[in-house]
Specification:
This protein is α+β, with helices and mostly antiparallel strands. The chain has one domain. It has 6 helices and 5 strands, in the order ααβααββββαα. It has helices spanning 2-17, 23-33, 44-51, 55-64, 114-119, 121-125, and strands at 38-40, 68-76, 79-87, 93-100, 104-112. It has a 5-stranded mixed beta sheet with strand order 1-5-4-3-2. The longest helix is centred in the N-terminal third of the chain and has 16 residues, at 2-17. The radius of gyration is 17 Å and the shape is globular.
Length: 126
């Protein structure tokens, strides 16, 4: 009996923390703002050095949305932010935080590694 209640409690917790995937909403917004360009909230050199990539590749990846696995939506300080999870393999991925104003605003970018991917696998892939 106790084991059954424990499993039911775990299932309830999992369902509470599952969030909706906002990928379709993001695709519509990207199509709307793609011609207006990009703006970076932090110094571009810092962000690109962190992920070891070029500005052209970052912008192309955001427009194409090829490796996007999950998109979360957050409201902070009166603005709506989208957290994009790109997964390239079992060991590598990248997270973007973007917002939409007059342009597409890239708030931050950071790589995610094997341990983080393993930790968030159920949220990102399901």
């Amino acid at each position: 009996m106790c084991n059954y209640l424990y499993r039911a409690f775990i299932l309830v917790l999992i369902n509470c923390f599952m969030t909706k995937n906002y990928s379709e909403e993001l695709k519509e917004l990207i199509e709307k703002y793609r011609d207006k360009g990009f703006r970076y909230a932090k110094p571009v050199d810092l962000l690109l050095e962190r992920i070891n990539d070029t500005q052209e590749n970052v912008e192309k990846e955001l427009i194409n949305l090829n490796n996007l696995k999950f998109c979360d939506k957050q409201e902070r300080k009166g603005e709506i932010r989208y957290i994009l999870y790109y997964i390239y393999s079992n060991k590598k991925g990248r997270v973007y935080a973007i917002a939409f104003e007059d342009k597409i605003v890239i708030i931050t970018i950071f790589p995610i590694g094997k341990k983080t991917l393993k930790k968030y696998r159920k949220k990102l892939i399901s």
